[in-house]
Amino acid sequence: MAASVSRGLIRSLTALGRSGLPNFSANAPGNGLCSLPSDLKYGMTLLSNRKLSTCILTPDSSGDTFPYDLLSKKTVITLDRTIGQYQDLVIPVTNFQSEDKGFMVLAGDVFDVPIRKDIIHHVVRWQLAKRQQGTHSTKTISEVSGTGRKPWNQKGTGRARHGTLRGPQFRGGCVMHGPKPRSHAIKMNKQVRRLGLKIALTARAAEGKLLVFDDMALPTHKTKNIVSYYNQMDNTKKVLVVQGGPIDEKLKLATQNLHYVNTLPSIGLNVYSILLHDTLVMSRDAVNKIVERLHTPINR
C-alpha cells in the first residue's frame, strides 16, 4: 500500500517539475519519517517545504538556505533560459536609490509556468466584460410618452396605415430590441483566473521586466524622485508599482501626476493591468503576499 501511494506521489511531484528545494534529511532524529519508504519521505519533504520557496537572500544569510556561491553572481536571470520548467528564480533586490539589497527566490510554480496565450485572452475578456456597468437602456413602445390614439383612418387617406405614433418608424418613438440594463459578466473558473495571473507574472519575469524592491520608501513626495528613477530604466514606457499593503502616501503623491506610472496594492494585481504596463515593480512584501494568495487552496 505504501509503495503504491509513494509511486503516485512521486508521479504528481515529477509533473510539477519542481527543483532547487532546500536540503532536508529524512533520517534526522525526531523527524518521524524514518519508518517510511525513501521515495515517500522525499515526496513529503517537498510538500512540507513548498510554502518556503519564496524567501529573501542577503550576504548575511546562512549557507543552509541556498548555495552561497549564487550570491556572488550579478546576472541571475538569463533571457535565453527555457520558460515553463517550474524552476525557482533568483533575482536581485534593490530600491529607488538603486542600492543592493541582496537576492530573492521566486516560486517556480508562480513565476515560471508555461506561457498560454489562450488563457491570457480568456482572462482579459473576462475582466473587460465584468467591469462593464451594463446601465444602458432604451424605451419600448409601452414606455414612450405619447397618445395611444390611432393617428388617422385605416383607409381613404392615401397614406400608410398606422395604429400609433409611438412606433419606431416615427421620430420620438420607441426602439425595438434595444439594450436594457443587464450584467455583461461571463463565467470563468478560479483555477483559470489564477493561471492567467501566473502566466502574466511569468512573462514579465522572462522578459527581465520584473523588478523587486526591498521597500517603496521615498525621501520626499516630490515627483522628481520617480522621474529620475524612470529615466534610468531602459526600454520602458509604462511602469506598474505594486505594494504589499496600502499605497504609501509619499509614493501616491509622487506618482499621481505621471501618466506612465501607476500604483496598485497587491490585492488588486490583475492580468489586464500587468499587460498595460511593460515593466512591473513589486515590493518584497507584495511578492510574498501574491505567492501566498496563489498557494491558498480554493474554497468551493
Characterise the protein shown here.
The chain has 300 residues and is of the alpha/beta class. It has a domain at 45-121 and 187-295: Ribosomal protein L4/L1 (Ribosomal Protein L4, Chain: A), CATH 3.40.1370. The protein has nine helices and seven strands; from the N terminus they run ααβββαααβαβαβαβα. It has helices at 2-16, 38-48, 108-111, 117-130, 190-206, 223-231, 249-255, 271-276, 284-295, and strands at 55-57, 89-94, 103-106, 210-213, 239-243, 261-265, 279-283. A seven-stranded mixed beta sheet has the order 1-3-2-4-7-5-6. Strand 2 (89-94) and strand 3 form a beta hairpin. The longest helix is centred in the middle third of the chain and has 17 residues, at 190-206. It starts with a helix and ends in a 5-residue tail after the last helix. The model is unreliable at 1-6, 12-36, 39-53 and 73-77 (pLDDT under 50).
Structural class, by secondary structure, is alpha/beta
Which CATH-level-2 architecture of the domain at 45-121 and 187-295? 3-Layer(aba) Sandwich
Strand content: 5-15%
CATH topology tier name of the domain at 45-121 and 187-295: Ribosomal Protein L4, Chain: A
CATH class of the domain at 45-121 and 187-295: Alpha Beta
The gross shape turns out to be: elongated
Largest sheet: 7 strands, mixed
Element order: H for helix, E for strand: HHEEEHHHEHEHEHEH
Rg from alpha-carbon coordinates: 29 Å
Kindly report the name of the CATH homologous superfamily of the domain at 45-121 and 187-295: Ribosomal protein L4/L1
Number of helical stretches of at least 4 residues: 9
Helix content: 25-40%
Task: Give the overall pLDDT as a whole number.
Answer: 81
What strand line-up does the widest sheet have?
Answer: 1-3-2-4-7-5-6
Q: Based on DSSP secondary structure assignment, what is the total number of beta strands?
A: 7
Low-confidence stretches: 1-6, 12-36, 39-53, 73-77
- State the end-to-end CA separation: 30 Å
GO molecular function: structural constituent of ribosome
Family: Belongs to the universal ribosomal protein uL4 family.
GO cellular component, one term: ribonucleoprotein complex
Protein name: Large ribosomal subunit protein uL4m
